[in-house]
Amino acid sequence: MEVRAGKQRIYNLFQWVWQAVKITLIGIFIFSSIYAATHIKLSSYFPIKKVQVFGVNRVQQEEVQALVLPLVKHGFFAVNVDTIRDRLVQLPWIATTFVRRAWPDQIEITLIEKVPVASWNEQSLLSEAGVLFTPKQDTYPPNLAAFVGPDGKQIDMLQNFYEMNRILSPLHARISYLELSPFSTWKLTLTNGITLQMGHKDVLTRLGHFVRVYPKIIGSREGDVEYIDLRYSNGVAVRWKNKDVEK
């Protein structure tokens, strides 16, 4: 009798659990149906009528609109701003973006674009944050410095670029071309057309020395200079375009 009673209790427990599961499943189904119906109704009552985009410069507004519009067609309450943000930052020019809903029928998007400092190996752009990105070439800004260097060295080159330009500031010239060879030797060309061979040792110290002696050895004759070699420990060598130019 005890065995039979034990089995009956197990059976009754099983029945109770099964009833609870059925009630739970029915509740979930009813809730989901109500939510779906409400969601569809709200979407039809509150459609998105306007998408505003701010901060567009290099990115084409039509490109942003084409990317965003399919994501806002389900109405104000169904818009997932995180999804829109994730899609936008995949555009090459976009550094970050802010997306918000504006009641009752608008989406506002603010774009922060990357700021390019230089071209990289004639294939990509290098941002001021040291990020390489590859947008369409017809969106490249003019007059960027050109960097040529080994892969993975863009941060080192960017840091030296900033420091070298600081040292060069008394000459009112900046770097237009910066090259780092696989052997860690530096070469740069200034906006006044002068090319400097820097070597691989004490490049910033040698550049500072060059700036100090520049008025005496170059002065106003930068147009006559072919290149300047700073790889000497106790001086510089100037190669003139016209060999008859007096040194």
Order of helices and strands: HEHHEEEEEEHEEEHEE
Give the class-level CATH name of the largest domain.
Alpha Beta
Helix content: 25-40%
Please state the CA-atom Rg, rounded to the nearest Å.
33 Å
General shape? elongated
Number of strands: 12
What is the CA–CA distance across the termini? 121 Å
Low-confidence stretches: none
Beta-strand content estimate: 25-35%
Strand order of the largest sheet: 6-5-4-7-8-9-10-11-12
The chain-level structural class is alpha/beta
Give the name of the CATH architecture of the largest domain: 3-Layer(aba) Sandwich
| CATH superfamily membership of the largest domain | Cell division protein FtsQ/DivIB
Please report the number of helical segments: 5
Give the domain tally.
3
Q: How is the CATH topology of the largest domain named?
A: Rossmann fold
Largest sheet: 9 strands, mixed
Mean pLDDT: 86
Summary tags:
247 residues, alpha/beta, Ubiquitin-like (UB roll), Rossmann fold, nine-stranded mixed beta sheet, three-stranded mixed beta sheet, 5 helices, 12 strands
Sum this structure up briefly.
The protein has 247 residues and is an alpha/beta fold.
Give the secondary structure arrangement, pairings included.
Blueprint: H1 2-45, E1 50-54, H2 61-68, H3 81-88, E2 94-102, E3 106-113, E4 116-120, E5 124-127, E6 132-133, E7 145-148, H4 154-168, E8 175-180, E9 186-190, E10 195-199, H5 203-217, E11 225-229, E12 237-240
Parallel strand pairs: 1-3, 4-7, 7-8, 10-11
Antiparallel strand pairs: 2-3, 4-5, 5-6, 8-9, 9-10, 11-12
Helix pairs in contact: 4-5
